[in-house]
Structures are given as C-alpha cells and as structure tokens.
Amino acid sequence: MTAGQLADLLDGRVADPDWLAGAVDRVARDPDALAALFPAAGRRCGRGPLSGTAPRSETGGTDPAGWTVDDAARVLLLTALPLSGAALAEQVEAVYRYGSADEKRAVLRALPLLDIGAGGVEILHDAIRTNDTRLVAAAVGPYARHLDAAMWRQAVLKCVFMDIPLTAVDGLDRRADGELGRMLGDLADERRAAGRTMPADADILLALIGDLPPEG
Amino acid sequence: MRIFDPHIHMTSRTTDDYERMAAAGVRALVEPAFWLGQPRTNAGAFTDYFDSLIGWEPFRAAQFGIRHHCTIGLNPKEANDPRCREVLGLLPRYLAKDGVVAVGELGYDSMTPEEDEVFAAQLALAVEHELPALVHTPHRDKHRGTLRTLDVVKESGIDAGMVVVDHLNEVTVGSVAGSGCWMGFSIYPGTKMSPDRMAAVLREYGPERMLVNSAADWGRSDPLLTLATGQAMLAAGFGDDDVDRVLWRNPVEFYAQSGRLDLSATDGQPAAFAGNSIARGGN
User: Fold this and answer.
1) Could you say which architecture CATH assigns to the domain B3-270?
2) pLDDT single digits (tens) A85-127
3) What's the rounded Cα separation, in Å, for the pair B202 and A149?
4) Domain with A77 in it
5) With contacts defined as CB-CB under 8 Å, which chain A residues touch B279?
6) Is residue A93 included in any domain, yes or no?
7) In the list A99, A109, B181, B275, which could disulfide-bond B163, CB 3.0-4.6 Å?
8) Taking CB atoms and an 8 Å limit, are A39 and B96 in contact across chains?
9) Is residue A179 part of a domain?
C-alpha cells in the first residue's frame, strides 16, 4: 500500500475532495497546519467504509479493506508531511498524543507508510496499553514488526483476550512461536477452569502452534 | 421516549448507569469538561482528562449504543489556580476535535477577577471556533452570578442563541428567558431542580430554548432524572411531542450548531462485543 494507491481508493468517496486536496497541499508546505486539519478530516471527508469489501475487524494492517474514508484521508495527510526520520516521528507523535481515538487509529494505520524506521514504536506500545479494541487492533498491523518478540506476543494475547479477530495480526503465520503457544495454552486452561471458552480463531491457532517447542 | 442528556459527567459513572440509561431511552449525551471533586494541580492532568473525553469515554458509551460528545474548557473553580492556567493555551488543539460540540463548562464559581478573565477568553474561543458555549451558573450567590453571566455573554459578542446558561431554577430562569440564551436545568437531588418543579417551569415558560439534564456526576445524583422529568411532564398534562421536543429535539438543535453532532447509528464494531462486559478490557 502506497500513498498513491490510497489516493486512488479515495477517489469519488470523499465528501469534500477540494478540502482534502487543499489540506494535503497545506500540510506539504506547513507541517504545523496538521494540528487543526487532522481532526477535521472526519467531518470534511466522511466516516463511511472505504471499500465496502470487508468489515474492519476482518482485516488488519494497511489492507484498505475495512478502513474508513477518514482513516485514509488522515493517512494521506501524514504522508504529505515534508519531513523524515526523527523530525517526522516527533510530528507524528504529537498528532497521536493529542488525537481522539479515531485520529489515533489513523496514525497507527499510517506508521508503515512513513519514513521513520522504528521511530514510531513507542506509539504502538501506547496503543497496546489501552483498552480500546480499535487501537489495539490497529497496533498489530505490519508496523508491529518493530515490536520485540515479548511485546508482540503480549499484543497477540491481548487481541485474544479482547475478542479482536486474529486476522488483524499481521505476519501471524510467520511469527507465532512456541512461547505464544504456551501462553495461549495457559489462557485456554484458565478459561476451561472457569467454564469459559476461547474465541474460535484462537483455538485454531493453539492447535497449530501448541506443540512447537517453547522458547529456550 | 428518546432522550438526549445535554449535560452528564459519565467519567464518574459506572457501566450499570450506561446500561440503565440505554434501557430508559438515552441514545445520546454531552459530557462537559468540569472539575472532578479533587482539585488538579497541573495542565497535564487536564489534557489526560480531555483525552479521555474524546477517546475512552465515547468508546465506553458506544458499548451501550449511546453516542457520546463532549465540551472542552477550563472550569471557573480551577481557573483560580495559577498552576492550571496553562490549560487555556492547550484548548485550541482540543476545540478542533470531532466529538467536541461546545466550549464549556464556563462561567462563575466565586466571581473573582481571574474567573472574569478566563470566562471572557473562552467565550472568544467559542466565537473563533464557531462553537456553542455551555455556561454554568454559580451555586452560591446564584441570582447575582446569573445576571453577571448574562452581561459577560452580551459583552463578548457571541450570538445569544449559541449559549446555554445552565443550572437555572425558578429564581433565575426569568432573566435568562429574555436574553435569547438557551435555558439549562439540572434535575439533581437536593441542590438543584426536581422533576415536578421542572414540569411547572415548563408550564410557565413553554418548551422553547429549554434544555433538561441530569448533570449526574460524582455527587449523589441520578442519570435517570431526565426520564423522570419526561414522566412528570406527561403527568402534568404535556403531550408526547412536548416531551420529545424538550428531551430530544431541543438539545439536538442546540448542539447541532457546532456542525459536529453525529447521531448516526454507532458503528458495528462495539456491537460485535455485545454480551461481553466492557469489551473485556485487558485487565
């Protein structure tokens, strides 16, 4: 997913396309303009589904299926910033810090598209500490490759705990290991002892990785 | 009965309240930024609180199918603490947010010069951001405080129709009725209005520009007193349409002036968690 592809997907779906084009121009010239333009994207562009192909919960990462129009508009605004590296990370962090939940979700979705390397990883840590399913789900997308193994496993386990579908987790097939299997197994034991069940997708994952050797 | 509570502090309420409110017909509400009982001592405590009003609390409300909006402002009591004054400079960032439908709560507590200054500065912010203003009237010296409030509103140049003067009663309603401002009433045990007295005020002044709220917060209060007021209105001979106007259409009309009121059905995501506790937060 690139900014160009996002712009194509937004074509014809934005309530006020002139506003968005003007906002992208302004941010490209004056990064400080972002503070007022970023929150306004919902009411100027609309909040409907972007593609209508899949509900948000069934997709993760930067797959636009399940995104909303304001998500994509905000990601475009972030990619228009004429900054990179630490300066860009600082600006993105400020937008996230003062963002509403919708704005925070858009920042999380934008991270893999921004030239900041691992500079946004603290933002992921913050999102994973919240109890907001929208933010936790957005935090386990492709940018989560920057999380270390322990934090990544905790994030996946938290998805299970919060009933966030595991399709939100990017790279689950590559990264799921024996230690995650052990953690899921323990959770399943705890649930069974309490007479509760696991989400179906977590049971499937446990069946796939439960027998892998745990981390040495 | 569909209910829009235009003033309630959900931060201080439990999920039991959300559940009962939804069952009683509350579909939307506005949570004004105010003091929390325990005084705050720095600007960061305010920004964390504001973040909650535009982040966590709307998420919590959505679990129960209730639309949550808020107002943002520096309240008069804490405006007197110089350590909190820095908050004024942080307000524009929050006044740009989607869920923020007014500046507030503003107004007077002890009617100090500091309160004068902060009140006027925030009315100017409301004009600049094209937002309505929610103005609290003081608990002590209320009648004088209400008159002074109306003077300050007039001097600020804000359109009277963009202002609600809140916590009114039989003594203070008359002066606000003639000002063009909206009239807010908190149905709150002990210190403010009761459902039957509210019905009597509506009988005398009519339903125009009238807002009824529970103002439920961390004190002994009841989020269902909006419903009780609707029932008291029916018992007093008002029709269903009058009740709907006071408890739904009036607050919608007032806050829609922000251009940011979003009353569309809550999105599918929270509904997917119905039946679970609060989306089973990770605790």
Assistant:
1) Alpha-Beta Barrel (3.20)
2) 999 999 999 999 999 999 999 999 999 999 999 999 999 999 9
3) 63
4) 3-142
5) 131, 133, 162-163
6) yes
7) B181
8) yes
9) no
